[in-house]
């Protein structure tokens, strides 16, 4: 009561409800307009609307004579959008940005609470709004400018590239065959974002006529904002009790309750999740996470959850891979669904994903090409499978994303045995479907059969090598003395070629050896990693000088012949070719004595090659060996000068266009080269990718 006395009623105003513009009145909210734009002139505004979508576009003129208008920027924008030629399709016919388009968006989905009010002679007249639209500047002209820019770039690249390059840019296409559409598939398609966008684009624009503020038609329409009759029959909705009137002004909000999802989908609410049954909780978690250790799953389910019940439920929606749980394929790809990439039915997708999971039960690593070759699925589907449970490693393949969970395997051997039996059944099905050969069924490495990798540090390897040397050195020395005594007793020659008896020592220097791990399984059993810095006498026991010379001669012959064939090689590619060369040699060859990276690089420089300092991009993911590029400087043929000019170009540029190379060759060599000669030089040293030329081995895809 005291508050009412402090706030007395000053005036009572009659309120009337106007119905003449019911479901026709819109409120437009404009941004702050620049001083060079006006809304008053009729000729300066054009409008169009899509009534069903309540979407409006207004095109307003810009006063180009206004002192606040920057004429140079207006001309530049018009030039970028329309180019130099103007026709009836041009956006700015005056070669000047003289107009701007505003596009609307709905400010509120429910406008039943809003009304336009007009106060006149002590009366307040309300007209309900049918929509509230916010107008924002539209920048579609920038998209048009970008499209023209891309067209010009494509035309320039097409002009620079030769016919041979055009033939190289062949892209793989996927042929899809449509199947009879089911009712569920049709409903999903109708509710998809793409379908809704297409429906909205199909609605035609309705062009409107704009009337200015002082126009007689505008004055006539404004009269409809007033109630046409002040009788009770016209305003029966306002004859309400105070409580009913308040209810009309502030109705209870039921929108949020109706919009709440029954169960979380992409974004999980832990509060809502824990209201669901345990089986549904586990299914939703596994469907979203896809790979999870059992300990993490228990922590998400909350304290007090029975682990036995969780183990019973998890086996219904997931499979055990390397001690971790991976969601089953039929949970991700339910029946009567298909691939969004290729349209392949869910049954085929489940088989392909099961093959990937099965491969990870046998090895930490999986090669994407091998999966695609066996499953015959498109690359996008195979990539989806691998991304569900693994991480890509450069030049290695795809590694299972979680470490081997040894704790779970030790605590639950019965679960592990049951899962192993299930995988045996899946393997039998996969063998029938994919006709798997023995190489697919056998793990690549013995360590992979244990389920987790065995890691050995560099220091441990050195210590193991030293211990092995100490263990074998005495025994080898005794055998050597025994053979020597036998030779003397038989009165044979006093001289003995000790090069046939070698005491193998493992590397103990700090220099990093050449990586030949990929060829450890070869018959020779030799592991490179010895260094010239330790002196050649320590290569294999105590080698005589003649043996050292033979190693150098053999290495020089290999390097020389390789560069005469390839001309340009990275250190990584050279080491790969050298390992292949070693694999082809018979056991006991002199090159098995051990070749270090430094020895190999020194020999490359000694054979007349030069290192090309290619300016790689700062964000390159290339390894240090891939950044070292060597090229044969003089091959002794007529193209030596041309190749040297080409290598000089790539010492300053990472990638170059063909026309730049051809012009530089013509200037430096003083003659006009024909296409065949340029092709010969480019073929020796370069590769083409995306319309540009790179030195061999330097392309970063």
Features:
alpha+beta, 6-stranded mixed sheet, 3-stranded mixed sheet, 20 strands, 44% helix, flat
**What distance lies between the first and last C-alpha atoms, to the nearest angstrom?**
80 Å
Strand count, sense and barrel status of the largest sheet are: 6 strands, mixed
Structural class category: alpha+beta
Computed Rg: 40 Å
Shape: flat
The helix content, as a percent range, equals 40-55%
User: What is the topology, as strand order, of the major beta sheet?
Assistant: 2-8-5-4-3-9
Q: Into which percentage range does the β-strand content fall?
A: 5-15%
Low-confidence stretches: 161-167, 255-265, 445-454, 491-513, 515-544
Discrete helix count? 28
**Whole-number average pLDDT?**
77
Tally of DSSP β-strands: 20
Oligomeric grouping of the chains: single chain
Region (Disordered): 146-169
Protein name: RPC5 polymerase
Biased composition (Basic and acidic residues): 146-155
Domain DNA-directed RNA polymerase III subunit RPC5 C-terminal: 444-701
Question: Can you walk through the features of this model?
Answer:
It is built from 28 helices and 20 strands. With 701 residues, it is α+β, with helices and mostly antiparallel strands. Helix 22 crosses helix 24 (597-606). Residues 161-167, 255-265, 445-454, 491-513 and 515-544 have low confidence and may be disordered. The radius of gyration is 40 Å and the shape is flat. Among the domains are: 12-62 and 98-150 and 190-231; 270-434, no CATH class; 546-695, no CATH class. A hairpin with a 2-residue loop joins strand 6 (115-120) and strand 7 (123-128). A six-stranded mixed β-sheet has the order 2-8-5-4-3-9, with no helix packed on it.
């Amino acid at each position: 009561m005291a508050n009412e006395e402090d706030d007395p009623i000053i005036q009572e105003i009659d309120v009337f409800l106007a119905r003449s513009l019911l479901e026709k009145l819109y409120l437009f909210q404009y941004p702050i307009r620049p001083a060079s734009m006006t809304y008053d002139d009729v000729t300066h505004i054009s409008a169009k609307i899509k009534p069903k979508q309540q979407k409006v576009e207004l095109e307003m003129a810009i006063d180009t004579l206004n002192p606040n208008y920057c004429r140079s920027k207006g001309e530049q924008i018009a030039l970028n959008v329309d180019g130099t030629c103007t026709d009836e399709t041009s956006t700015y016919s005056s070669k000047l940005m003289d107009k701007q388009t505003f596009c609307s968006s709905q400010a509120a989905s429910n406008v039943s609470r809003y009304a336009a009010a007009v106060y006149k002679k002590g009366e307040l007249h309300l007209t309900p709004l049918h929509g509230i639209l916010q107008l924002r500047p539209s920048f579609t002209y920038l998209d048009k400018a970008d499209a023209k820019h891309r067209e010009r770039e494509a035309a320039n690249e097409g002009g620079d590239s030769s016919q041979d390059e055009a033939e190289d840019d062949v892209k793989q296409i996927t042929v899809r065959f449509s199947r009879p559409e089911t009712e569920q598939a049709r409903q999903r398609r109708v509710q998809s974002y793409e379908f809704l966008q297409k429906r909205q684009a199909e609605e035609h624009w309705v062009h409107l006529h704009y009337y200015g503020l002082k126009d007689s038609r505008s004055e006539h329409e404004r009269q409809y904002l007033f109630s046409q009759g002040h009788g009770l029959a016209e305003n029966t909705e306002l004859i309400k009790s105070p409580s009913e009137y308040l209810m009309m002004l502030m109705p209870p909000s039921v929108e949020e309750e109706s919009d709440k999802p029954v169960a979380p989908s992409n974004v999980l609410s832990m509060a809502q999740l824990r209201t669901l049954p345990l089986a549904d909780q586990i299914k939703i978690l596994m469907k979203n996470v896809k790979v999870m250790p059992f300990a993490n799953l228990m922590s998400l389910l909350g304290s007090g959850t029975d682990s036995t019940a969780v183990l019973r439920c998890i086996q219904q929606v997931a499979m055990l891979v390397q001690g971790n749980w991976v969601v089953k394929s039929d949970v991700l790809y339910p029946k009567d669904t298909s691939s969004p990439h290729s349209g392949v039915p869910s049954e085929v997708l489940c088989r392909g994903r099961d093959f990937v999971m099965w491969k990870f039960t046998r090895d930490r690593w999986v090669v994407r090409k091998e999966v695609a070759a066996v499953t015959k699925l498109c690359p996008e589907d195979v990539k989806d499978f691998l991304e569900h449970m693994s991480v890509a490693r450069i030049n290695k393949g795809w590694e299972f994303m979680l470490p081997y969970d040894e704790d779970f395997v030790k605590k639950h051997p019965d679960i592990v045995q049951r899962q192993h039996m299930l995988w045996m059944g899946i393997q039998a099905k996969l063998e029938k479907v994919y006709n798997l050969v023995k190489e697919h069924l056998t793990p690549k490495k013995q360590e992979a059969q244990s389920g987790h990798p065995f890691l050995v540090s560099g220091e441990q390897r050195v210590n193991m090598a030293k211990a092995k040397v100490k263990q074998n050195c005495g025994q080898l020395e005794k055998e050597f003395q025994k053979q020597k005594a036998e030779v003397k007793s038989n009165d044979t020659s006093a001289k003995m070629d000790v090069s046939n008896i070698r005491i193998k020592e493992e590397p103990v220097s700090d220099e990093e050896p050449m990586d030949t791990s990929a060829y450890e399984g070869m018959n020779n059993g030799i592991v490179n990693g010895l260094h010239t810095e330790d002196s050649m006498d320590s290569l294999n026991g105590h080698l005589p000088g003649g043996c050292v010379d033979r190693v150098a001669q053999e290495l020089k012959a290999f390097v020389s012949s390789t560069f005469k064939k390839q001309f340009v090689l990275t250190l990584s590619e050279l080491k790969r070719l050298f390992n292949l060369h070693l694999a082809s040699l018979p056991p006991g060859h002199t090159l098995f004595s051990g070749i270090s990276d430094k020895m190999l690089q020194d020999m490359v420089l000694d054979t007349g090659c030069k290192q090309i300092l290619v300016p790689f991009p700062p964000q390159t993911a290339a390894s240090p060996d891939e950044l070292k590029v060597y090229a044969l400087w003089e091959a002794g043929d007529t193209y030596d000068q041309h190749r040297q000019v080409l290598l000089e170009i790539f010492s300053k540029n990472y990638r170059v266009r063909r026309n730049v190379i051809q012009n530089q060759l013509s200037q430096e060599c003083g003659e006009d080269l024909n296409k065949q000669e340029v092709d010969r030089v480019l073929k020796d040293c370069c590769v083409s990718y995306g319309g540009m030329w790179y030195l061999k081995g330097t392309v970063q895809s």
